[in-house]
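Exercise 7.
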Amino acid sequence: MVDGLVQTVINTGSIKIDDFHKEDNGAVFLNKDSFKKFLASYEERLDKPFKYREEESETSYRRLFRMQVENFEKAVLNRTDYQPFLVR
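Solution. The predicted structure, written as tokens, is:
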């Protein structure tokens, strides 16, 4: 999900090369305003509806992530196999 978001913000020009800064140790970071812009895009992507193959209706990544946490919890508590969500 995040890989696709990064591609989108780069390809649409929402985030540009000037939005990054390099530290003395060589680390590269988004500047503060651009990081806020990225987080806003992330929140928007979390709530964007899409068709999930195991449900008849649309869902969101936020709901899907919550369902996966609940499924993982059940697997741990019941000592059963966990089936993760796989992107195709």
